[in-house]
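Blinded run. Sample ID left blank on purpose so nobody reads anything into the name before looking at the predicted structure. Input follows.
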Amino acid sequence: MKRGFASDNNAGAHPSVLTAIRKINSGHMIGYGDDPVTAEAIQLLKGAFGQQTEAFFCYNGTGANVLSLNAFTQSYHSIICAETAHINVDECGAPEKFTGCKVIAIPTQNGKIAPKAIKPWLHGFGFEHHSQPGIITITQTTELGTVYRPQEIRELADFAHTYNMKLHMDGARLSNAAAFLDLPLQAITTDCGVDVLSFGLTKNGGIFGEAVVFLNSQVPKGFKYFRKQSTQLHSKMRFISAQYCALLENDLWLKNAAHANEMAQILRNSLADIPGITITQPVESNGVFAIVPPHIIEPLMKDFFFYMWDEHRNEVRWMTSFDTTTKDIEDFVTRIKELL
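Blinded prediction complete.
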């Protein structure tokens, strides 16, 4: 099937991931995470994020976000995020349903939020008629493809901790951010004061499974019970863990993400001089956002599937993946020129 530019979710699995799964698909192993493959994956995560790390695997990104947010909130708390955040836009109300918390979405032009934008919402502490601010959540990379710099994350963490709040990071595309910044994973998470991380692999060559990683805070009492109660405890855990082993060993996670980022840059550069195409966000990861003439959108989608981002202004989102090729981009750009 032709590769499109809709989502890195649409890509297949990296061959090394499939090899790792086949390798552990023999004999019997104890279920629910008490197996040597899961133990190895957890050690690799400790190596990536710091020895204090505690990791828990679950099924998907929404589950990882819900588990992370629930770990440090009560139902009377509020969760503060960017208005474009996945938890606000694309999780069908799951954070509100399972945590009971009020989600407060902060307006943003680039997908990022800063303390000065959050501060007006921090009021009513101790006043029983108001939800109590409990946790700030950011996405790295953001839903607009932009990347938080380490200093920006540290400022948010210090700000959150000043108000006795926690900082959560939705790291569905954290690998792409690390590749763009040319920094280790620990340097843009643990070292910046992030308390809990949803660390994804699905968008970077995995099949299914995510990890909730506690970085600078102890695992809250009862967390493992909530993971089970939330239907996020996988019985054959080794099949999730093996994917993390494959991607973390020999920095495959970084190679995949760097390639996807490079393809996005090539796409951006190929579009730069085409009249009628306006790039709307800095290309800092594997996403290109552009306003295009409306008459080309439907026929272009038929040949190379992608998603609208803002139909009111004809803005589209084009995502590259670990398996995107320069030929894919050349064909795509050629078709755009033909339609124009």
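Unblinding after everyone has recorded impressions. The chain has a mean pLDDT of 96.
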